[in-house]
Specification:
Blueprint lengths: L4 E5 L4 H12 L3 E8 L11 H13 L3 E5 L2 H8 L12 H19 L3 E3 L13 H10 L6 E2 L11 H4 L17 H9 L17 H13 L5 H6 L4 E4 L5 E4 L3 H9 L6 E5 L7 E4 L6 H13 L8 E6 L2 E6 L6 H5 L4
Parallel strand pairs: 1-2, 1-4, 2-3, 4-5
Antiparallel strand pairs: 6-7, 7-9, 8-9, 8-10, 10-11
Helix pairs in contact: 4-5
Length: 335
């Protein structure tokens, strides 16, 4: 028998916050579910989105569960059933992935349906009528996904038909404009919300090239591989070897922390410059190429110095390069 308890997909953004608020006002008991991903566009380090979702959940007095999109999700990115958007974003498959977990949590928590902040026509790939139907069917949630912000544009869900939710109090938002959401936030006295819309790095063309390069050249991807995609400049030598060069001290620090077995770290000796990370089993001479790239991006800060350190297999040695890498060479390698 259906009850008045629902799982809300809460990103911490404005839309999902509004959807939860509208349901709470109808007396629906909410348990929130938040997903984290290395592909989030959060500009700060750490689980910013999860923290924001947790803040909203705390403000509303609802429990929240946070799930990390793991390496199983990478296989969806590698080969999505419903294809990509403008980049490497498998939006429909991603929604199916999250809703499938939401269905399991719905059953675990004794809930009867799902709440999302989706708005018809807001996202070109996943927020269309046909995409909504596909997501519901593939996740086994037909008639059980309530979208309070755009519900009046859609067929009534089971909770609406049973009177658990008052359809007349649901909304008819559509399109990409966020003005209606911002106005509603003011009406509902919701403040301190983050930017109205979140985002996914998989829609970014440059970042997508890095993701495609990684998936094309490495079968067993690790979480560190994914974290590395957000750091520095990337250069592909061959299928086995990639070089990453830090852009600033924050990048340099992250590269030092992301060294894996078989990797090698290149750093300037006696001058200020970027850190370089050789990813993969390097061959003779690879460190010289990496060193010349480090020298290229050090620029005038190198002051004519050419000595660098190589950290590999727990040992550090010094070496010298002849000259900075030529830009023409780098154009053929940069990802």
């Amino acid at each position: 028998m259906m009850n008045k308890k629902a799982v809300a997909l809460l990103s911490g953004g404005l839309d999902s916050t509004l959807a939860v608020k509208l349901m709470l006002e109808q007396g629906i008991e909410i348990v929130a579910l938040n997903f984290t991903s290395t592909f989030c566009t959060c500009s700060c380090r750490g689980s910013v989105c999860s923290n924001e979702a947790a803040r909203v959940a705390n403000e509303f007095g609802v429990p929240i569960k946070v799930l990390q999109k793991g390496l199983d999700y990478i296989e969806i990115v590698r080969n999505p059933k419903y294809g990509y958007g403008q980049g490497m974003n498998p939006c429909v498959d991603c929604r199916i992935y999250m809703h499938t977990f939401a269905k399991k949590y719905m059953e675990e928590s004794g809930s009867s349906f799902i709440i999302t902040g989706e708005v018809l026509g807001q996202r070109p790939m996943s927020q269309r009528r046909d995409a909504f139907r596909t997501i519901e069917k593939e996740s086994g949630l037909e008639g059980l996904i309530v979208r309070p912000l755009c519900a009046k544009h859609l067929e009534p869900t089971i909770p609406e038909k049973l009177g658990i939710i008052d359809r007349e109090k649901l909304l008819a938002m559509d399109g990409r404009s966020r003005k209606p959401q911002i106005a509603l936030a003011e009406e509902l006295d919701i403040e301190n919300y983050p930017c109205p819309s979140g985002g996914c790095l998989l829609t970014d063309k440059i970042f997508s090239k890095r993701v495609k390069d990684l998936l094309d050249n490495k079968k067993d991807v690790t979480m560190k591989d994914l974290q590395l995609l957000k750091v520095g400049r990337h250069f592909r030598l061959n299928r086995e070897i990639k070089i990453v060069i830090g852009r600033d001290e924050a990048d340099n620090k992250r590269l030092r922390n992301l060294v894996q077995t078989d990797d090698a770290l290149i750093e300037p000796l006696g001058f200020v410059g970027p850190t370089g990370l050789i990813c993969g089993l390097s061959r003779n001479g690879t460190h010289l190429l990496a060193g010349s790239i480090v020298l290229r991006y050090a620029g005038g800060k190198a002051q004519g110095k050419k000595r660098l350190s190589l950290f590999k297999d727990g040992e550090t040695t010094a070496f010298e390069v002849d000259s900075p890498a030529e830009d023409e060479l780098l154009k053929g390698m940069i990802i």
